[in-house]
Amino acid sequence: MKTxxxxxxxxxxxxxxxxxxxxxGKINDTVADIASTDSSNSxxxxxxxxxxxxxxxxxxxxxxxxxxxxxxxxxxDAANLxxxxxxxxxSDAAMGKAWLTWYGKKDEHxxxxxxxxxxxxxxxxxxxxxxxxIRTTSSFxxxxxxxxxxxxxxxxRKAFPTIQKLNKLPDNNRDIxxxxxxxxxxxxxxxxxxxxxxxxxxxxxxxxxxxSDIYIPAPA
Length: 220
What we know:
Oligomer: single chain
Strand order of the largest sheet: 4-5-6-7-11-10-9-8
Largest sheet: 8 strands, antiparallel
Number of domains: 1
């Protein structure tokens, strides 16, 4: 079954933003760098990599529904993002809202990877912008029950049985639908092609609020 899925995936262009090419000459894997801990102190690094008891997912690779992807955390001050992660490779901002994008190296299926963070004003005072959604197209990250990009829809349903099919995303090559576990605060972009339903991106959002209430497609 896993072999069939991998063969099918190899024929897909990755996620709904497959038309964008990372800046030429980029060397560092920014997506992995965002998740990794400080390597300047090996003892501190070892201390900071906590393992979940059940599946041994490293904390810096962990997706926590309704909370975080790696070191990117919901409701944190957007002003600190550049200090924490470096300058984004791309940004798309308007009316106080923005998608910030960091690119990584191509993955095991030769698809590009990226991490997108959506920010907007915290409240009507318009004084502070916070992280409202986090989206990854990288299989580097995983939930503690082993759901990640490239998981099948059936595998995701077993881990998150209350997910609901929401909207269809624009894509020139195949159908991509968003499935959302509203109460848990996690959503999945699912590509439907060649009889396979495969996850191409994972979005973490505020618990109890539909991803579509805030979600706009990440920059292509």
